Amino acid sequence: MKTRDLLVALSLLILSVLACKSSGPGSSPTSTYKAFFDAQKKKDVAAIKKSLSKGSLDMMEKAAREQKKTVDEALKEGLESPAAKAEKAPPTRNEKIDGNNATLEVQDEESKKWETMYFVKENGAWKIALDKTIEEAFKNLRK
C-alpha cells in the first residue's frame, strides 16, 4: 500500500470514529440529557453517573455521606420517585453553548414551565452540572 493510500485509509477511519463519537451520548448537551433520561428509565446507575459532571458527583457524594449512604444507594432511592418514572423525556429547547459551558431548557411536566439545566464539558464530553443547576435554582428563589 502506498503512503498516500495509507493516509487516505487512516483519515477515513478517523473520520468514521469521530462521526460515531459526535452523534453519541455526550456529543451535545441535548444528547447527554437524552442519555441521562434513558439511563434513568433503565435504572442504570453507572450510566447516570457517566452523564454527571465531577462537581455534581462530588455534591452527591457529600449529601449521600451525610445520610450514611453511598452515591449509588442514593441514586437508586431517587429512581423510585415519581419524576424518575416518566415514560417519555420532557420537551427541551434552546440549547446554548458558550465554550465549555452550556444550558438547555427542559419543560417541567406538571407546571409546564421551562427550567434551565446547566452543562459543562469535561474530557471532551458534555456532562450535566446538577450542582450548577441547583445553585442557580436557589438564586432564583431568593429573587
| CATH architecture field | Roll
Overall tally of structural domains: 1
* Main pleated sheet: 4 strands, antiparallel
Regions with little confidence, pLDDT below 50 for 5+ residues = 1-23
Please state the CA-atom Rg, rounded to the nearest Å. Answer: 18 Å
Tally of helical runs: 6
The CATH C-level name is: Alpha Beta
Would you give the CATH topology? Answer: Nuclear Transport Factor 2, Chain: A
Mean pLDDT: 79
Share of residues in strands: 15-25%
Query: What class, by secondary structure content?
Result: alpha+beta
Overall form = globular
Description of the molecule:
The chain is an alpha+beta fold. The chain has one domain (26-142): Nuclear Transport Factor 2, Chain: A (Roll). The protein contains six helices and four strands. A four-stranded antiparallel beta sheet has the order 1-2-3-4, with helices on both faces. Helix 2 packs antiparallel against helix 3. The longest helix is centred in the first third of the chain and has 20 residues, at 3-22. The termini are far apart. 20% of the residues are buried. Residues 1-23 have low confidence and may be disordered.
